[in-house]
Amino acid sequence: MPQPPKRKRDRAATQAALLAAARARFALSGYDATSVRDIARDAGVDPALIFRYFGSKERLFEQAAQSAQDDRDQEAASEDTPEDVPTRLLHAAMRQAPGAEGGHPLAALLLSSGRQDCRERLGARLHDDYVRALTRLVDLPDRELRAELLTAWLLGITVARSLAHTPALSEACVEEISPYFEQVAAVLLGTPPPAAAPGGPSAP
Questions:
Q1: What pLDDT, on a 0 to 100 scale, did the predictor assign at position 84?
Q2: DNA binding happens at which residues (predicted)?
Q3: 43 within a domain of the structure (yes/no)
């Protein structure tokens, strides 16, 4: 009895599935604690395909990080006005590792910070995605310090939600955090504070 023809593997779909699985795994466990078998199992493919399509676990990590950066670039390009930047960054910081698709873009770098290349990439990502965008909003002599302070707070939100899973902050939504964030952002960016909503935090 003739055997049915084998289905041709969809290379692009397999690569996309491996990248998605890698982003989620690296964001959940970091580079060292993630194995190629974990990633392949999550993607539903043979581990050998990681080496066929990406060459190594390290190259897969690099491409997964780059795909996250490409997503961030698309988000940044969609911004209408500079005033939208702090809100966009808050939304990015509120992503949670297992809950958000692919995990938080910074979580993999934070969990892999024992590697020098990951520390360097983390510093570059914070500068390019956060500090540089926020510095442009400040018209004061210490604008770099102000931008880095607000970046440090956003990074802390990411760590608390994506890695430490602190209960109150992990359960809060953007709408609950926004009034507090807007007050602090106004102080650091040197902009007029927003009007307090009923029941919201008072201006500092």
A1: 77
A2: 35-54
A3: no
